[in-house]
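Appendix B, example 12.
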Amino acid sequence: MSKTKQQLEAEGWKAASVTGGDHLKRTLEMYQELGIEVYLEEVKPEECGSCTECFTAGDETIYRIYTKRYST
């Protein structure tokens, strides 16, 4: 079940970026190394609010990445 932006923000999540493909993998690895928790939300190109031509041309799934520090 998908969460709303308001639910995510209430839980401490912050929108970090929108990406896909190989860049998504590298970004997730970087966040893991930094000890940052991630939540991925699949988005449609028209929901991004920015250029998505590269993602669309490569037939890549686009994700919005939300981040927060791991709870201790």
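The beta strands are 14-20, 36-43, 62-69. The mean pLDDT is 86.
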